[in-house]
Amino acid sequence: MVTYAINHPLLFSLLQFAEEIMQTDSRSREAETRFTQIISNHGGIINRICYSFADNTDDFNDLRQDVLVTLWRGMDSFRGESSIVTWIYRVALNTCVTAARKQATRKEQPLTGIIEPTEDSDCENDRVVQLYEMIASLPLEDRALILLWLDEVPYEEIAEVMGYPRNTVAVKLHRIREKLKSNFKKQQ
User: How far apart are CA 167 and CA 179, in angstroms?
Assistant: First the structure.
């Protein structure tokens, strides 16, 4: 802290206040830079989770914004007891599940314009859309589990995010995958 050779208490207080603002502004810029870096590195996780809980593009954008705001507000409280990815998953899933529970009546509208077409084939894009539609029809906890698995999160980390024992995660995932395979075959 800078020491000021000023005898007037009001002027001294104003200078202290200005210094505090400058320090806070510097910390704020550092936090913003850190947050931007985290989102640029892990934004795909947020997008995939929000996509699977959204009924339409507006829902997707609202969910994504809610997750980003929640992450921003929670950055200072992140203790580092888990990896940043685990924390992002937990925040994103909790935010999306809470929003889904609040939404008593859901309007069924197709999600268009969120999945970007690949150069491979339209058939593959159709399969991806079909998979996400099947995932969206799963119960909320099953949806969260399968999304983590699709992102190749290790079972131990899924267990930590979801609050289940590792073996429960394995059994639940097996059942969900079998259900999705069965539904996919029925639609073919």
Answer: 18
In a domain, 151, yes or no: yes
Residues 6+ apart with CB under 8 A from 71: 35, 38, 39, 46, 88, 91, 92
pTM: 0.59
Residue 2 within any structural domain of the chain? no
Residue 160 lies in a domain: yes
Confidence band (pLDDT; 50, 70, 90) for 20?
Answer: low
**Residue 20 sits in which domain range?**
9-187
From CA 70, how far away is CA 61, in angstroms rounded? 14
Q: How many CB atoms lie within 10 A of CB 23?
A: 11
In a domain, 1, yes or no: no
- Long-range Cβ contact pairs of 156-159 (< 8 A, separation 24 or more): 157/82, 157/83, 157/85, 157/86, 157/89
Number of domains comprising the chain: 1
3-state secondary structure 115-133: CCCCCCCHHHHHHHHHHHH
| Mean pLDDT score of the chain | 78
Query: What pLDDT is attached to residue 111?
Result: 45
What is the DSSP-derived secondary structure letter of residue 154? -
Residues above pLDDT 90, as percent of the chain: 15
